[in-house]
Amino acid sequence: MTLIGHSMGALTAWQLAAKRPDLVKALIICDMRASALGAASQREWEDWFGAWPLPFATLAEVRKWFGEDDPWVERPNASRGEFFAEVMAEGSDGWRPVFSQEQMLTSRATWVYDAHWEELAQVRCPTLVLRGIEGELGRAEAQEMVRVLPRGQYAEVEDAGHLVHYDRPEGWRRAVEPFLEQLAEGFRDDREPVSP
User: Fold this and answer.
1) Per-residue burial over 166-184, b = 16 or more CB atoms within 10 Å of its CB, e = otherwise
2) What is the CATH number of domain 2-35+115-190?
3) pLDDT tens across 110-167, in order?
């Protein structure tokens, strides 16, 4: 199978590809760093979660806060507001995230303090490292990830942040489709010849 992972999901995807190469034939890693983010990053997330004005009265307020007003983000945008509107559920007192903020912090704590270069180097399948120009993953680190990967490739999407596929869906497709087409060609080339 081909796995596409974004952020924490990308780390999970490359950990699976490293441990079970029999299951993963190709991998797309989107906007996830291999270096340790450290305690400061975890504290920033704790503070950011604490700043959310919960509950939101309406989905329009969710869209506005995450899309325009979030003081923790350098360049909020409408697609970010749309993303967060999709991860909210309505309760008796208003709109809250469908996930537990405490559980999210606990999940991050399992990987945020450690680097994951060794696991990345164990990924043997074709892998695309993809980043939004304004995302979390910097160009130098992304290119080093490609260098470490035995079969790595690199792509970036302009005018996109961490939520690349939300920010620029067309740019996302333009970055991903050539990689997938290469895979399809390779899979066709690897087939046994069919006799007439």
Assistant:
1) bbbeebbeebbeebeeebe
2) 3.40.50.1820
3) 899 999 999 999 999 999 999 999 999 999 999 999 999 999 999 999 999 999 999 9
